[in-house]
């Protein structure tokens, strides 16, 4: 299973405009595993992840999902193929209630019973959301908003979830809790690909880690091995 | 060089329109349209500064034109000493009081700490101030309007030369723009459009209903002509002029009207060229480059430390002042102030279409648009009903025929709207694009 | 007794007309605010959309009248409403497909869309004049009064009459029904929620698989329906003149901005705030004051704060106050 990654962006080259940001960059995640992209500012971490989601033009390489080539699909079409994406900012409907946020996440589904079921699962995963289900999402705290954002993406029952810096701007305690939940989500068989600023903690929970520099792969290994690698520690984890 | 040939051809084409009008209709009409076209071109230059240089969309151009017209009445209308003596000071005092209340309220608002007390104090001041203002102002208005309402009923003007009214018109319009710009600039771009729509409507309503000022809908007529334009009757009575033109084989009456129009043409043309010269200089100066930089990327410009709102306010005021200048010139050429003519269609929308068709951001484009659409607009006004009459000549007289003839003027609205939409869609850079 | 008379006069000349006018403005402002929320520009053509729809309603009213169809005591125009809405919805959908869609695809700046909508405004304005002319049209029929002054005076023995015109009652009832239906739609239905989601966060709505074209179309249809209803109610209550509808644009915008552009609740509140301020400031208070004040203090003048010519100044002043002190409006729009 580990040999055929569930989602892989292979040798991706491209950018938003005429300038290439990614250079022959490869990112992959296996079924039910957590893969983390780390690296210095401006290394193209988010860009690499967005490339797998079809948010920029690739001039080279391809993206495969479960053995199918999805390189040409739009982000919306990829959502229907089973990819969930949580943007870094503006990732909730602030004027709508928590429950409506989840409902909107399930917009492409029309099995009403199934939707209720998924919603229950999400409330089980994030109990605080059940308490605040009728409150406007914009009124919640930073950590709770991230839970809404992740919950919204989970509503489509994705097979792979992309998270863009899910812990940006939340306190360390909340961050630990969020990581715990992410591990829980991965245990249900959903693959997780995330970009993280807090490299050490993220690699700690990662099955696979990618260290990017200037849009290219620098180091790729298991999270554990990367944490142990002295060069990675020196250059990217602050010693 | 291909572009400059193209531009010359475009201007030649417009010139041809005026020549054909002269040959087939009359030179009087052609010159009349040309003069108004030049004034429209000046207004278009003002709007082009706001939109083309700075990306500001104002829907209140008619307000600036009307303020320019008002300036002519204030500066050059004959004084009405009796009317002024009756209540002029009370009216002006009332207005000054009104301004003082607004200033005091602003100062109070700034001086006090936010909270309920401040809201109460400021509201109380404004309400009390309003009643005091109305008390003083109403008495003055009643007294002024009571004096010989059939002829005057207003406070009159200063009786100064009409030429002096032109810069004053620019100042009036600039002041109006300052007030509205101070409030609406720096917010969402839509708000300027909405706020200017409102202020323009208010300015026109003031002109229509404040009889003490410019006689409202009773109109002010007999405004003096700007130096050195003579009156036709005086020319016709001048034996020297009559002798000379008859010597050249012209009819003295036609010759006098054409002579007057040519003089206007010379004066307006000179003003137009001066404004183009000044704005070309400005556009190519560091200031102009900064303006365009701000227009193209506000975020970047403000990140570089440019005060975007302040620059916008500057250009908004200057643009409105240019429009006000043209508005004053128009009123002093027509010799009367008729508030009813200030329709948003004619003086806001048409000018907009001139700028966009001509080429936003390009002064020559604005001039070309002004002359071309000025010609189209007025030619249709003079020729349209005739054309429609000719087209419907075969129809029996009846409802349908009247309806079609009446609808000629509404077609103008539809046509202009469609022209604007088509240009925006297919040639957003206009006939003479920005370099 | 004097106090009751004053109260009745207040109701009759200020509150009732204010509420009716407020309902009309609120419906108009709802359309503006929905379009702003979803398409992100201030639609300058909204006043003329109201005029166009009303013109069609008037044509159908005439047709029905010529066929001898009436709606009993209610205005025939109510029967013609669905036809006006259908025609207007078709027109705005065609406008969107032919004009606005292009700029949406280009992700043009909002101000470009504002200019384009001003172009559309003039085309529509011309169309309306071509269809129905520029003259004033009265198309109210049915019973004139729900409660007429003499009946009221006879029943209560008061000197002041209380009059409720049928058109006023119809305005309020229709407005309540429309607002309730709109809020039910926005809060409870899937399409309504997707509209709110799209207005809240366009990118995320796209990520969630919401179809933007459908949201935009639904928004246009609702805005057109609200515009036609608002325009027809205004025309029934007062009269129809194309130029007046163009001038309604300012109070409608003021109402939408006061409430906060993009906020439906705000648009309703804004409609009533603008309408009541307008009526209160332009009403001659002499009558009410004479009842309340002792004779020695009886007013000489009309006690009118502003002449009715300056109605437009009221909307404008409210707009300015809001822009100065709370640019996002009472209900925190965008």
Automatic annotation (TrEMBL), chain A:
UniProt xrefs under SUPFAM superfamilies: P-loop containing nucleoside triphosphate hydrolases (SSF52540)
GO molecular function per UniProt: ATP binding; ATP hydrolysis activity; branched-chain amino acid transmembrane transporter activity
GO biological process: L-amino acid transport
Keyword check for ATP-binding: yes
One family name in Pfam for this protein: ABC_tran
InterPro entries (alphabetical): AAA+_ATPase, ABC_transporter-like_ATP-bd, BCAA_Transport_ATP-bd_LivF, P-loop_NTPase
Domain ABC transporter intervals: 7-239
Keyword Chaperone carried by entry: no
Keywords of this entry: Amino-acid transport, ATP-binding, Nucleotide-binding, Transport
Family: Belongs to the ABC transporter superfamily.
Name of the protein this chain belongs to: ABC transporter ATP-binding protein
Species, as recorded: Tabrizicola oligotrophica
TrEMBL record, chain B:
Location of the protein in the cell: Cell membrane
Main localization category: membrane
One GO molecular-function entry: branched-chain amino acid transmembrane transporter activity
Keyword Membrane attached: yes
Listed transmembrane segments: 7-24, 30-47, 54-77, 89-110, 117-137, 157-179, 191-207, 258-279, 313-333, 345-364, 371-391, 411-427
Domain of life of the organism encoding this protein: Bacteria
Membrane topology: Multi-pass membrane protein
This protein's name: Branched-chain amino acid ABC transporter permease
Automatic annotation (TrEMBL), chain C:
GO biological process: D-alanine transmembrane transport; L-alanine transport; L-isoleucine import across plasma membrane
InterPro entries assigned to the protein according to its UniProt record, in alphabetical order: ABC_transp_permease, BCAA_transport_permease
Transmembrane stretches, start-end: 6-39, 51-71, 77-99, 111-132, 162-186, 215-236, 312-331
Record keyword Signal present: no
Subcellular location: Cell membrane
A Pfam entry, by short name: BPD_transp_2
GO molecular function: L-isoleucine transmembrane transporter activity; L-leucine transmembrane transporter activity; L-phenylalanine transmembrane transporter activity; L-valine transmembrane transporter activity
This protein's record includes keyword Acetylation: no
UniProtKB keywords: Amino-acid transport, Cell inner membrane, Cell membrane, Membrane, Transmembrane, Transmembrane helix, Transport
Domain of life from the UniProt record: Bacteria
One Gene Ontology cellular component annotation held by this UniProt entry: plasma membrane
Membrane topology listed for this record: Multi-pass membrane protein
Family per record: Belongs to the binding-protein-dependent transport system permease family. LivHM subfamily.
UniProt name for this protein: Branched-chain amino acid ABC transporter permease
Record organism: Tabrizicola oligotrophica
């Amino acid at each position: 299973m580990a040999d055929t990654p569930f989602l892989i962006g292979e040798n991706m080259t491209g950018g938003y405009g005429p300038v290439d940001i990614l250079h022959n960059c490869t990112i992959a995640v296996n079924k039910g595993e957590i893969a983390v992209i780390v690296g210095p500012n401006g290394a193209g971490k988010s860009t690499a992840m967005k490339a797998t989601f079809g948010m920029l033009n690739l001039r080279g390489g391809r993206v495969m999902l479960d053995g199918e080539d999805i390189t040409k699909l739009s982000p919306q079409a990829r959502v229907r193929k089973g990819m969930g994406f949580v943007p870094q900012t503006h990732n909730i409907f602030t004027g709508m209630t928590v429950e409506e946020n989840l409902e909107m996440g399930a917009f492409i589904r029309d099995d009403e019973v199934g939707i209720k079921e998924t919603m229950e699962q999400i409330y089980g995963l994030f109990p605080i959301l059940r308490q605040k289900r009728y409150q406007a999402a914009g009124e919640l705290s930073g950590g709770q908003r991230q839970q809404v954002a992740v919950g919204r993406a989970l509503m489509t029952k994705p097979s792979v979830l992309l998270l863009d810096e899910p812990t940006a701007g939340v306190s360390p305690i909340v961050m630990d809790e969020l990581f715990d939940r992410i591990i829980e989500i991965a245990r249900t068989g959903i693959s997780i690909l995330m970009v993280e600023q807090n490299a050490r903690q993220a690699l700690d929970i990662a099955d696979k880690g990618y260290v990017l520099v200037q849009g290219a792969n620098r180091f790729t290994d298991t999270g554990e091995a990367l944490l142990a690698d002295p060069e990675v520690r020196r250059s990217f984890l602050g010693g | 060089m291909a572009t400059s040939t193209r531009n010359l051809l475009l201007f030649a084409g417009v010139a041809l329109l005026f020549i054909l009008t002269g040959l087939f209709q009359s030179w009087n009409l052609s010159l009349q349209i040309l003069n108004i076209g030049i004034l429209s071109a000046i207004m278009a230059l003002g709007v082009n500064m706001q939109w083309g240089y700075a990306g500001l969309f104002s829907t209140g151009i008619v307000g600036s034109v009307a303020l320019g017209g008002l300036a002519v009445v204030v500066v050059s209308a004959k004084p009405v000493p009796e009317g002024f003596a009756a209540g002029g000071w009370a009216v002006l005092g009332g207005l000054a009081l009104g301004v003082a209340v607004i200033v005091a309220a602003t100062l109070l608002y700034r001086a006090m700490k936010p909270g309920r007390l401040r809201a109460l104090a400021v509201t109380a001041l404004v309400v009390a101030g309003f009643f005091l203002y109305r008390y003083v102002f109403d008495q003055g208005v009643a007294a002024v309007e009571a004096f010989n309402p059939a002829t005057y009923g207003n406070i009159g003007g200063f009786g100064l030369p009409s030429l002096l009214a032109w810069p004053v018109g620019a100042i009036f319009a600039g002041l109006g723009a300052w007030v509205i710009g101070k409030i609406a600039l720096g917010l969402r771009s839509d708000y300027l459009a909405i706020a200017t729509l409102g202020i323009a409507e208010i300015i026109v309503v003031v002109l229509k209903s404040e009889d003490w000022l410019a006689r409202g809908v009773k109109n002010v007529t007999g405004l003096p002509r700007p130096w050195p334009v003579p009156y036709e009757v005086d020319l016709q009575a001048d034996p020297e002029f009559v002798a000379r033109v008859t010597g050249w084989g012209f009819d003295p009456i036609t010759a006098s009207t054409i002579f007057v129009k040519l003089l206007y043409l010379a004066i307006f043309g000179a003003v137009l060229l001066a404004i183009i010269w000044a704005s070309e200089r400005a556009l190519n100066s560091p200031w102009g480059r900064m303006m365009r930089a701000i227009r193209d990327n506000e975020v970047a410009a403000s990140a570089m430390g440019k005060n975007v709102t302040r620059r916008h306010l500057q250009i908004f005021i200057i643009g409105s002042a240019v429009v006000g200048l043209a508005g004053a010139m128009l009123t002093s050429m027509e010799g009367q102030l008729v508030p009813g003519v200030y329709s948003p269609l004619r003086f806001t929308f048409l000018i907009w279409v001139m700028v966009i068709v001509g080429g936003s951001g390009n002064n020559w484009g604005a001039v070309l648009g002004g002359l071309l659409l000025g010609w189209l607009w007025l030619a249709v006004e003079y020729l349209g009903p005739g054309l429609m009459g000719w087209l419907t000549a075969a129809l029996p007289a009846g409802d349908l025929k009247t309806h079609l003839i009446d609808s000629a003027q509404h077609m103008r609205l539809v046509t202009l709207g469609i022209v604007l939409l088509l240009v925006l869609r297919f040639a957003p850079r206009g006939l003479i694009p920005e370099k | 007794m004097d106090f009751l008379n004053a109260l009745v006069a207040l109701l009759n000349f200020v509150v009732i007309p204010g509420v009716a006018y407020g309902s009309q403005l609120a419906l108009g402002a709802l359309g503006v605010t929905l379009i702003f929320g979803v398409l992100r520009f201030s639609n300058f053509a909204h006043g003329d959309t109201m005029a166009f729809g009303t013109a069609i309603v008037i044509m159908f009213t005439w047709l029905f009248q010529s066929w001898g169809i009436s709606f009993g005591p209610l205005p025939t125009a109510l029967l013609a409403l669905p036809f006006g809405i259908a025609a207007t919805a078709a027109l705005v959908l065609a406008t969107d497909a032919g004009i606005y869609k292009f700029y949406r695809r280009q992700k043009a700046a909002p101000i470009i869309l504002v200019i384009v909508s001003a172009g559309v405004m003039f085309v529509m304005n011309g169309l309306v004049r071509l269809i129905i002319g520029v003259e004033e049209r009265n198309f109210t029929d049915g019973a004139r009064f729900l409660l007429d002054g003499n009946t009221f005076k006879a029943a209560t023995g008061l000197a002041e009459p209380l009059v409720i015109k049928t058109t006023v009652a119809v305005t309020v009832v229709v407005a309540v029904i429309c607002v309730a239906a709109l809020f039910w739609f926005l809060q409870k239905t899937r399409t309504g929620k997707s509209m709110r989601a799209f207005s809240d966060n366009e990118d995320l709505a796209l990520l969630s698989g919401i179809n933007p074209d459908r949201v935009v179309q639904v928004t246009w249809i609702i805005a057109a329906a609200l515009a036609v209803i608002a325009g027809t109610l205004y025309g029934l209550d007062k009269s129809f003149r194309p130029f007046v509808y163009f001038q309604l644009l300012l109070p409608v915008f003021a109402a939408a901005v006061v409430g906060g552009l993009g906020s439906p609740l705000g648009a309703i509140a804004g409609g009533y705030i603008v309408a009541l301020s307008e009526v209160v400031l332009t009403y001659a208070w002499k009558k009410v004051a004479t009842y309340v004040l002792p004779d020695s203090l009886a007013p000489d003048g009309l006690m009118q704060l502003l002449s009715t010519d300056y109605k437009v100044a009221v909307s404008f002043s409210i707009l300015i106050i809001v822009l100065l002190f709370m640019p996002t409006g009472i209900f925190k729009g965008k």
